[in-house]
Amino acid sequence: MRLTERAHTELKKFLNPGDQVIDATTGNGYDTVFLARQVGTNGKVFAFDLQAESIEESTRLIEAEKLVQRVTFFQSCHSKISEFLPVEIKGGIQAVTFNLGYLPGGDKQMITHPDTTLSALVQSYEYLSVNGIISLIAYRGHDGGNREYNQLIELIKKMKWSCQTYPGNESDHSPMLFIIRKFKTD
Ligand code: SAH
Hints:
With about 190 residues, this protein is α/β, with parallel strands linked by helices. It has six helices and seven strands, in the order H-E-H-E-H-E-H-E-H-E-H-E-E. The chain has a seven-stranded mixed beta sheet with strand order 3-2-1-4-5-7-6, sandwiched between helices. The longest helix is centred in the last third of the chain and has 15 residues, at about 145-160.
């Protein structure tokens, strides 16, 4: 099973109609569409990406799928989650997805960076509801990817978050899926 599918399988277990969720790396919009379907007509997806190209492409996809009312896009760095999302929904976000690295077929310079990735992840956890879930796919094969991966491991340990990891294949540089769960307010 591809890691993106595995991430969806895990997310599905915790998503219900009416949920509010975050897509921290919109990319080509596939996670955004998946999340929008899961949260139903009364749910909300807050979707972040730095690149106009990603937001435009994903908006087209969301329109084609007739899911426009469920999604709010922010062309912004995901480290600004707490600037854009109202403080009232802190503790009320049921799921957050990250798919790191660069947009396949896009600008390989527009890559996620450890400092902003880690900041976004800490904010995501703060916004997450108890029993919520964060899925994050990290890529170790490209320049800087391994450093980002190692810093994620350190952060998760330091924060004592509950986390399971799933490698995509058996190689040392396989992409890795992190499933982080929140069981109590901390
Ligand atoms: N590597 C994945 C796709 C990742 S797409 C795969 O192979 O399928 C990653 C997306 O994150 C890109 O669209 C990129 O523009 C976006 N991105 C990079 N840095 C970001 C940041 N700081 N904030 C928000 N989005 C960012």
